[in-house]
Every structure is written in structure tokens, then in C-alpha cells.
Amino acid sequence: MIATSTVDLITVNIDGKDVAVPKGTNVIEAAAKAGVDVPHYCYHPKLTVVGNCRMCLVEMGMPAVDPATKAAVMDPATGKQKINWMPRPVIGCATNASPGLHIRTTTQLVKDCREGVMEFLLVNHPLDCPICDQAGECKLQEQATGYGRGYSRYIEDKNVKPKRTVLGPRVTLDDERCILCSRCIRFSKEVAKDDVLGFIDRGSTSTLTCFPGKKLENNYSLNTVDICPVGALTSTDFRFKMRVWFLKQTNSIDMESSVGANTVVWSREGQIYRITPRQNDEVNDTWMPDSGRILYKQVKANNRLTAASVSHASTSLVDAVNKASALLTEAKGALRIVASGKNTVEEQFLIKHVAQQLLAPVSLVSHVGEGDKILVSKDHTPNVRGALVTGLISELPKPKLTELSSDIDSGKVKLVLSFGEDLAQAGITAAQLAKITVIYCGTHTNTTSEAASVVIPTLTVFEKSGSFINQQFRLQKFSAAVPGPTGVSDDLITLTHLLSSLQGTPHATTQAAGILSQTWKALAASIPSFAPLSFSGIPATGLLIDSTAFAKLPFVETETLHFKPVA
Amino acid sequence: MPEQRRIIFKHIDSPGYTNDLACYQKNGGYETLKSAVLRKPEELIEEVKKSGLRGRGGAGFSCGLKWSLVDRKSGKPIYLIVNADESEPGTFKDRYILHQDPHQLIEGMMITCFANNVRQAYIYIRGEFPEGARILEKALAEARQANFVGANIVGSQYSCDIFIHRGAGAYICGEETGLIESIEGKRPYPRIKPPYFPAVLGLYQCPTIVNNVETLCHVKHIVSMGGEAYSKIGTPGNTGTRILCVSGHVKRPGYYEFEVGKITLGELLNDICGGPLPGRTFKAVIPGGSSAKVLRFGERFKGKRKVGTEMHDYDWSLEDLPMDFDSLAMVGSMAGSGGVIVMDDSVSMVEALANINAFYSHESCGQCTPCREGSLWMKRITNRMVHGDARPEDGTLLKNVADQIAGRTICAFGEACSWPTQSFVSKFGEEFKTYADRSQATVSAQEIIPLV
Amino acid sequence: MNLSAPTVKQIDEVITHYPQKRSAALPLLHLVQEDQGYISQEAIEWIATKLELQPINVFELVTFYPMFRQKPIGKRHIKVCRTLSCALMGGYKTCAEFETQFKTKRGEISEGGEVTIEFVECLASCGTAPVVLIDDTLHENVDCAKARALSDRIKAELKSNS
Predict the structure, then answer these.
(1) Which of A49, A54, A206 is nearest residue B366 as measured by Cβ atoms?
(2) Coil, strand, or helix at residue B406?
């Protein structure tokens, strides 16, 4: 679907192995391609190169040529062109691929360099591992094990620096652990565009800090915690909560806007502990907004809907669905469906079938707000495009349901079925809600759920698997990280049950995984752009789908990282 | 006894010589500039190349070669920065040029600017020369007034202005890329090379020449007498004169200008500087600023070296050592900035090293791991030793730490902070071994143990 | 920020010396310190605004360079070189002598706000070691006797000024 670009490839030699890399690739990346690990701290593929940690020192050589004739000088021992190895090691992060470049990483010199740098890094570094959050994902630990000498000869006192500076509302800093790699400073300046961090003092007393009175409080502050190779910058929310080696990692998508930043949800025994970004070079690089990270707190929020109810009395899910089906059938011709940009593609597909069964018009509610030109777009829902692609809607949603409002007033509408949208936010008054029958399917209580005759609890994005289509028209999937509340069924099962109830066909109970692939078979069959796909076949970094049918729609998004609206 | 040849220092300490323009012109000043602007810039660069001039700031890099590496195709403005940040311990020559003969520098600068198509030059003067900055400002005002600096100088079409930029007490600003970062208003962290070679990506990412004060004064004299004539002064490969600054335990410390290579260490210290202090014998000498490797009196150097086109044997005592770039490099030290620090038998080498290590640890910018942690570690070891807690193996440990720094850092500060330790331990190892035993240890007569 | 009018004039002039405003950070810090005696937090913010920088960018410089201070010092600033050549010729004794004469320790403000004594690194006058920089004037060959003489002179000058 996307044409692969032809790039200039150069062949370089890493530890005797030839590897072809695009022009301009640095040695760390080239070596990774050749399967060779070059340890490093300050280098980050998405930030400028500074070369200050010196851990990526390697030996570099160029093929020998006669200076006068430019003919190759051969090595009689190997029969190949002689390589002139430079006596001084070079840093891999700042050495770019050039024709004939030879790199050695397994020589005694490189070994000495790495052991030396490791020993120096640990000279003033506090032995905090037992109490440090970074343990288990700490680059110092990993590289000390892999490349360190195993012991230190340092017997002097260590530097003392502030140990629990509150840099901002979400980040706590331990200055003693800081190895002065400057990744956080570069990130704040180059990506978050908030030049608020810096080093003060000099030499080994250099200390990371903010100017007194200023805080690291931009909406990307927690990315500095992700990229900090040690436990200096820590997430105040996650501090001391859980050891990372106990946590299960699940791929997910940030649902706070149509950017669809890729994430990882970290959980243990059904509880989520933190969310971090997942690398996707087409969508979010290695970053995500702070505001997306706290969304996991909604899973255990106080106002979580955990039980189905009919007329405010708890009941079983089956009874609630059956009651909803009865009400819907009764109100046929005078009902409206309000779906959401927060519903998954699969749910939107099934809702469409419900709407078709009931001959009911469907609207979405738009949630347009501030975009930040980085990773939060103006559309504060993740999946409006899913509703377009599945055919659930054909026009972009509006912020207020004005037509519905007047239809309720005029008596044309007697029942509204809402899938996760609080109608009160969309301009429907309490009086209007009282006038009609409301069926609400959602995750948390709100004005609409309070006014609903039937309430069906649904799952958050963390408790189910599904997909969203982001502003690039990229189909991206996410998986369930933790199980939903007891008694709450998978949303696709609930929807299928409702549909079969409306159609009068028997409902076969299936497991969540089965229903997903079953739904996808139907999806792929009915939507041309999905034709060859299955859920498991969606790549981890997503898949662009054909959006020509929607090219003329006035989408609200403006430029963000990796996205430019078509003119 | 060799005679000084004072070309650069001709008027320093001359009675009646003042640092104003009138005095400078009375002595033939700015005549060279007047004729230089009538010549082709490439010709002037050729003269400097022919002269064999090597930088006088410490690295001894060929000046003509440095100029030829400047990127003249990028279309970006070319800058000249004068490194007047004289901070190498033991060095005190640029000070006198700046304070007593500033117009010589300005003339040398303007000739250099003209030759290299520079329109804007900066003088980076260390913050501890406040009087020097005032003198330079006054001299620049005079020079602008007389049309030697600024727009259309001396009736030509060529314009170039000079501004002064004061430092604020950081040795690392003497490193050319650290200096550039300092002028740009950032923390003076030296840049990684490649890709930030000043000749290509220097000040404001434009091609930049960074030259030492004394070097630029030599340029004036080269253009005046011709590169060929200049190359005959001094010795082959080590042309011209250079100013040697002798300090420490000699009878007559001070600055002396000699043809490069035409004076030996022995002649310098014994004949010119009067020999050791009464009742003392020479013990050690650092020949090129504190970064240079120390030499031990009693050492001998043997080998073969190239003189002209032939190989000659040499067998030198320390006193036989000619004070030129190549000879000093050959015996494992360097000519550096010309700062000759002499230590006599009253000095404990362990304590002297402690003093030096405290300097480097204080001046490390902290950017890269080996220098930042290594210089601090070495300081802490020597501090611990001199404050009474030495171990016999500390000398070996010092050497091992230093070996892990040199060659692994972003800038030459790595070598600068590790060479003293490496050479002190190597040449005076027995003092380091025995320092732990106070009854055996050599302790300085003078208090030089650092308190910080 | 109540900087004197001449200082503000100099500040505006020096900014024109550079194609990028940030370069004027060091000159501005010198001018502000000469005007106010030290660099306050307010001054840092003022300079940052003036040069379209963030305060942290200026704060980084103030703490890196030893010549900038964030607190006021005594009326006279006595800086004694402590690097090798001066130390070899007795620089440490010279410093101790000043401390005795003014009954103060390095880094402090002496009684009556008279002086602040500090060690500095090589002042590039090693041939006339030990050297001392008192405010902007360099004093050479400062042994203990000369240190005493200089101290007396400073005390006399301060007395006549008050």
C-alpha cells in the first residue's frame, strides 16, 4: 500500500561482517543491524547527538590506499585490502556510515574503554539499587553486567547531591544518580519545546535542575523519565509501587486524541501500574503525552459502572440486554442511536448492524479541543474515522446534538441509545432526558446513566482488545491488559447478544478472543479496504488504509508530530 | 650563552614605550597592514605557509594548514577568534602583549582577517585581565579612529570590525570549541570533532579560525619580512621565535624570547635564569605548561632523529634538550604554551601533583564521563595521600585511572589532566610508593598541599 | 532591576556586537555584576527576558563561571592564586597572611564588610609569583611581608572612604 523508497545504501563492515545501511546511519544503528550491541547512554535515536557518555567508543579503520597512486594496499596475510585502524577509538553515535568503514568492537582496546567508562560512571553513583525504581530496566545495571570489570577500585567518598527534588507535579529527581547524559535536557528543548531543564555548577558537581520557581510541568514531562537511563528522573506516581520485573507488558493505544500514540500498559495480577510509550516511527516516535498516562486510573475509579441495571435496580447482564432489546423494538421509528468516537472499530461495526436492524439514525458527538502540535490532536477522541470507515456515519460529528434536542422537544424521539456518550455534555437537558427513555452503555456513571432506564456496563480500552483508526487513517490495534470487573462481559459479546436479540436469532455464547476474530471476519467481508486482513494480521505499528473516500471531509486536526493535514 | 631575539617582545618593558597608537606608529606600526591590503589575500596565506609558523597557544599546529582548512565555499561568513584566554598554568606571555603592546595584536589580527576574508573578529580575553580588556578597548577605539579597523580600512574596500568578549574564569574556554560555545552564550562544553571542526562548523556554525595572541603577532612579522625570511629564523620545522615563560625555583624567573630550537633547557635554566635557588638543586621541570609531561633531572634521552634529510643519533641529558616542538615531543613531553615550571629538591612530587590535580578537577567542565569522574578521582587520591592516608599502591592506581582517561574524551583536556599524573608517577614512582611511610616520604618545604 | 543608566546603555550597545542575542549573556552578566555587586535571581530573570532566553539558560552560566557570584561580597575582593607556580613560591602562606590580617576565612565577608578573600586558579603571571588580584589590580611578588603591607593599605583606604 505504501511504496518503499529507494535509499542510498552503503556497505560497512562490523566485526568482520558486511552490512548494508542507508547513507548517514551511525555506527550504533549499523551495528544493531549487524546484530552487534554497542552500549551507550547519551545517544537516543530521536534526539541530537552529543557524544558525552563515551560508552560507545569503538575502533574504526579505513581501507588503506597508496597516497600517490590511490591504489588499494593489500594485506598479504589475508589477501584482502589492508585496513588502517586508527589508534584512537571513536564514538559510534557520531561516526556515520561511509564507504569502506570498518568497525571493531571486540578488541582489548574497546573492552578497556568500556570497563573504564563503567568504572568512572560508578565512581560517584550511589549504591541505591535496592531502593531504586529503575532496577530491572536500568542501563547502568545492564551495561555494568555486560561490559563492566565487575569491581571498582574507588575508595574515596562520593559526591552528595539533592536526592528527592520535586521537579514538577509528576517527576521526582535524584541528582546523585544522574550520569549527566543530558537526554532530558535535549528532549525538553527539542521535542517538548519547553527549555526548562539545565545543568548548573561544573565538573562532577554538575547538577540537573530547573530554575528556582520554574517547574518541569509540560505535558511531556514523563518522557524524560522514560529516556533517563538511570533512576535519576522518576515518575512520582509510580515511585516505589512495583518492581518492573513483576509487570506484564501489553501493547495499547493512547485514546485521548486521534493521534493514537502507541503505548505499553504495565500490569500485574489484574492491576495496572503505569503506561509508557511504545516506539512507532510513523506515529509518535518514542513519546506520549503525560495526560494519556493517567488514563489507567479510570479503571478503578469510584464512579465505575460495574453492574447492569434496569430502572435503577441491579440485574443480570442478560436481563438488561433483553430489556434493552424489548424497549428498542417497541420504540422502533422513534429512536436514535448516539455512538462515540471512543468506540472501537469492531464495536462501531456492530453498532451499525444494530442501527440497520432498527432503522435508526446514528450520530456521533465531536470532542474538539486544543491541540498541542506534538502528540495531542484537536480531536479528543481516538476513533471518529473508524465510524466513517465502518459506515456508521458519513459526515463528521458536531459538538452538540441540536437536531436530536429539537426532535425530543417535538416528540419525534422517544428513546435514545447511547454507547458511551454523556448526552448532557452534548446539549441535551435534564428535562429532555426525563422526557424520553434512555438506554446507556458505558464505563462510568454520569448524568445520562443516572437518567437511563437500562444501564449496561462496558469495558475500558485496557480491558478489551480492539482497534482504532487514527488521524493518519492508520488502523492500530490494542490488547486487553487486565480483566474487566466481574460480571461485565466483553463489549463485542454484549453487542452481538443485543443484535441477535433484536433479530430474534439465538445467541451463542463465545469467548472474547473468538468473538474478536469472528467480528473481524465479518468486517473484512463487508469493508473493501479491510478485505485481506485479520485482527492478528494487523502489524504492531499499524496499517494505513485507503482514505480517498473521505478526502473531502473537513477534519479538524492540524499539524502534529508525523502528521500534516492534506491541504 | 644564547641571546634573546625579541621580535614579538621587542618593546615589552622598554622604557618610554607606551601602549597607545601614537607610540606604536612611531615605531613603524601598521605599515605592514597598509601594504598587506594592497596584496592578494592568497599571497598572504602563502607567506604564512612558507614561514612554517606553528601555533603558540599550546598545540603547535601549523598555522598555514589551519587557515587552508577553512571552508570558503559555504557562503557563510568566516570568523576570526583570538584566544586571549591565557590560562595554562606556567604561561604568562600573552598578558604582556595585551597590556603593553595591544596594537601589535590588532595589526596581526587585521592582516589575518584580510588574508582570510573575515569581516568580524572577536577577542576572547580571560575575565581575570580586566585591565587588559580596558586597554584593548582603548586601543581598538584608537585603531578605528585611525581607520585601521572597521569600514574600508586604510583606503581599501575591505572592512572588518573587532569586538572584545570577556571570559569569566574557566580554563576550558581556552579549548577552541569551548571558546566558541562560550561566545555563543552557552556553557563552554567543547564540541565533538567530527563533525564540529571550527574551520567548517565553528562560531554560529560558520567557518571559524581560532588563533592564539602570540601566533597572530608572528603573522604580522611574517608578512612584513616575508615567509621565506621568517622560515630561516629558528630551526627547520620549528621556525621563528617563541616566548618561554620560566617560573618556579630559579633565580631569575620571567619571560624570554628565543629562536625556536636555538636554546637548550640547560642554557635556559642555568645561564639565562641563573640556576637553582641558593643551596638547592634542580629536581623536575615541566617544559610546556602544566599539561605537559614532567621531566626529571638526571634523565637521559637516546635515539635517532631526523635533521634536515638525514638521521642523526642523539644522546641527551635533560640540560641538552633543545626547546623546540619536535625535540620536546620526541622525548615524551611537549613545547606546549612555553610555560616552564621548575621544581627543586625542596618539593615533594606527590604534593606537586596534588596541586596540579586540584587544578584540573576544578576546571573540568563535566561534560564527558572519563574527564569528569577521572579528574575528580585522581584529585581525591592525591588529596588523601597528602593529608596523611597514602597507600603504597596509590601511585599505580593513579596511573591506571589516568590511562583510562587519555584518548577517550571529547577534547584534549582529557590528555591535559592525565599526562601530569602519568608522568609524575612514571618518573618519580618511588616517591609515590614511599609517601605512605612519613619517615621516608619527601615532603615539600613550602606548603603546596591544596586545601580544597 | 534598578541598573544605572550608563549600565543599561552599555547593555543595549553590547547586544549589537553579536548576530545572536544569546552571545551577549556573558557581557551582560559582567555588566550587571559590576553594577549591582552580584547576580541576583531577579537579575537572572531580567537578563533572560532581555535576551529572549529561559532563566535556566542564564542560571547555567552564573553557576559555571567562578567569577560570577550570587551573593554580595566585601568591599574589596582579594583573589590569591593557588596554582602550582604560585604555590611553589609560597602562595598558600600569602593567603593565610591575608586571612590573619582581616580575621576572616576564605569565602566569607570580613568584619565590617571590608574584604572577601578567595583562592583563584592561575592568573598568568607565574614569573612574579606569588600573585594576588585585588579587585582589578594585579599585585606581584606578594610574600607575607607584602601581604601585610597591602592589608594595611586596604584598611587605610577603607577608613578614609567611610
Answers:
(1) A206
(2) coil
Confirm or reject contact between B168 and chain A (CB < 8 A).
Answer: no
Chain C contact for A214 (CB, 8 A cutoff): yes
* Radius of gyration, alpha carbons of chain A: 28
Compute the distance between CA of residue A77 and CA of residue A239 in angstroms, rounded to an integer: 58
- Give contacts of C57 with chain A, Cβ < 8 Å: 195, 198
CA-closest candidate to residue A293, choices A368, A383, A376: A376
Residue B294 pLDDT > 50 = yes
- Which CATH code of 2.30.30.240, 2.30.29.30, 1.10.10.1590, 3.20.20.20 fits the domain covering C5-64? 1.10.10.1590
A195 touches chain C (CB under 8 A): yes
A109 and A138 part of one domain: no
Chain B positions in Cβ-Cβ contact with residue A53 (cut-off 8 Å): 368-369
Q: Is B364 touching A (CB cutoff 8 A)?
A: yes
d(C-alpha B151, C-alpha B122), whole Å: 16
Residue A391 lies in domain:
309-550
Nearest to A517 by CA among A549, A547, A490: A490
Series of mean pLDDT values for 10-residue runs along chain A (567 residues)? 64 95 95 97 97 97 90 87 94 95 97 97 96 96 96 96 96 97 98 97 96 96 97 97 97 96 97 97 97 95 94 92 94 94 96 94 95 95 96 94 94 95 94 94 95 96 96 96 91 91 78 79 89 90 92 93 86
* b/e burial code for range A462-472 (CB count within 10 A of at least 16 → b): bbbbbbbbbbb
DSSP-based three-state secondary structure for A545: coil
Q: Which chains touch C (3 or more CB pairs under 8 A)?
A: A, B
pTM assigned to the model:
0.94
Question: From A90, which residue of chain B is nearest by alpha-carbon distance?
Answer: B408
Q: How many CB pairs under 8 A join A and B?
A: 93
CATH entry, C76-161, from 3.40.50.2000, 2.130.10.10, 3.30.1330.10, 3.40.30.10: 3.40.30.10
Q: Do B89 and C60 touch (CB under 8 A)?
A: no
Sign of the dihedral defined by the CA atoms of residues B326, B332, B338, B342, in that order: negative
